[in-house]
Amino acid sequence: MDVLTDHGHGVEDGLGDLASVRSQRAQRGRDLLRAYHERGDLEARERLIEQYLPLVRALAARYARGGDQLEDLIQVGCIGLIKAIDRFDLERGVELTTYATPTITGEIRRHFRDKGWSIRLPRGLQELNLRLSQLIEVMSGDLHRSPTIRELADAAGVTEEEVLEALESNDAYLTVSLSAPSLGDDGDVPDRLESIGEIDPGFEAGEDRVLLTPALTVLDERERKILDLRFHAGLTQSQIALELGISQMHVSRLIRTALDKLRAQIPGADDGVAA
Questions:
Q1: Which residue has the higher pLDDT, 165 or 244?
Q2: Which domain does 80 fall in, by range?
Q3: For residue 193, is it within any domain?
Q4: Which of 168, 180, 246, 258 has its CB 3.0 to 4.6 Å from that of 223, i.e. a possible disulfide?
Q5: What is the C-alpha separation between 9 and 235, in angstroms, rounded?
Q6: Within-domain flag for 261
Q7: In this structure, is residue 24 part of a structural domain?
Q8: DSSP of 109-169, one letter per residue?
């Protein structure tokens, strides 16, 4: 009995040590982020890249089909990591890993798209996505609102990063912002994969997308399509009307109804959203 008790304490001590290490690593990351953003410390930026490189490797490995492709995807993923580091807002209560995960994954998926490659989703992501879809449906009914990313993670027994990766990897949500999209560097409207985790005009847009992930489940197929055309493709209401063969006034009503549904799911959502 004493042996079992001692063994149990050993496991608990080990778990405690692991939690302590993770906490220290997260604090070190916050300190480096502060040094970089507040003092322009480029060495801190390099150390951040080194510290979170294992995250890039882990995400890249999920999509790589061979050693050569893995190295390419790690380089691509590092671009996403650097974007996340550069655009991170210290005042938000979100860890860098939570913010960086969809940014890195989005960069990898864009690389696949640009190369014309098909993406083979890892079985684990497919299974998690199915579980999350079921949880969103059940929890939305129980809570009378859409569950947050943290609530989904707790219910599924996974991390917030895993929830974000699973939902994003299977295009389980539209990256619809609550404001009109900004133009990319080349003057084009960023597509849904490129804009995941990006900031427009600040970190709030990335946060909006996190909040909207489960909330979009309340929309029907036509409402999703119209919001996609309006906020992702950047079409005007008149252009959408021509595309769908309905009146511009009808489009306006549908957009307003869809946005009202989203606001009802997200506490504190801006009431001044322009359709």
A1: 244
A2: 15-120
A3: no
A4: 258
A5: 61
A6: no
A7: yes
A8: HHHHHHHT------HHHHHHHHHHHHHHHHHHHHHTSPPPHHHHHHHHTS-HHHHHHHHHH
